[in-house]
Design a protein that fits this description.
The protein is an alpha+beta fold and about 190 residues long. The chain has 7 helices and 10 strands. It has a domain of about 130 residues. The strands form 2 sheets. A 6-stranded mixed beta sheet has the order 2-8-4-5-7-6. Strands 1-3-10-9 form a 4-stranded antiparallel beta sheet, with helices on both faces. It is globular, with a radius of gyration of 18 Å. The mean pLDDT is about 90.
């Protein structure tokens, strides 16, 4: 069984994964362009928005797109991080215990329930450009798949979600389905065996 087949099989047995589609290599440029355009449109004065995670995923040998329901576990860390040139100014939080702790911290400023800014870091960042970055994160369910290494995943923007959900034959308008890109390399062990 190929590394790609092993990954697809593991993903389809992962709770919350509704469907998988192996991204054709020629579609990578379109994803890069759509993500860049979406982030430019979303940018705020004094804040650049960059999806570094998409760049990292698309640098891998293979990319799989998954459609998932809310039953998929949350990523194992913050996807969104806001920084100045030196420090973290804000980040996404999703763990209830972390939210509870930070909600009592006078240094924390919440934007909704999932994004926190830190007063002291904001004060030090005054008049410095800020960057909102979408970070690639591991996809733990694939860590033990034989022949696979360097696994990273990222949530994509709405324009990319719509275009590639349609291309994969999925309903992009279903509010209960999201889209994640997962990139990985084949390990040398797998390459020597084939």
């Amino acid at each position: 069984m190929s590394a790609v087949d092993s990954v697809v099989r593991q993903l389809m047995s992962t709770p919350g994964v509704a469907a998988c589609w192996v991204l054709p290599y020629e579609d990578r440029a379109a994803i890069r362009q759509l993500e860049t355009e979406a982030n430019l449109r979303l940018a705020l004065p004094g804040m650049e928005i960059v999806n570094e995670g998409v760049k990292e995923v698309l640098e891998r040998q293979h990319v799989v797109v998954i459609s998932h329901s809310p039953a998929l576990r949350h990523p194992p860390g913050p996807i969104i991080v806001i920084c100045d040139e030196e420090r973290v100014v804000g980040e996404e939080i999703w763990e209830p215990s972390r939210y509870e702790k930070l909600s009592k911290d006078p240094n924390a400023i919440f934007l909704g329930r999932s994004l926190v800014l830190y007063r002291d870091a904001l004060a030090q960042a005054r008049r410095k450009p800020l960057k909102l970055t979408y970070k690639a994160l591991p996809f733990p369910e694939l860590e033990k798949v034989e022949g696979v290494k360097d696994v990273v995943s990222i949530t994509i923007t709405i324009p990319v979600h719509f275009r590639f959900s349609q291309k994969a034959g999925w309903n992009p308008n279903d509010p209960n389905l999201g889209t994640v890109l997962i990139g990985f390399n084949e390990s040398e062990q797998r390459n020597k065996a084939t």
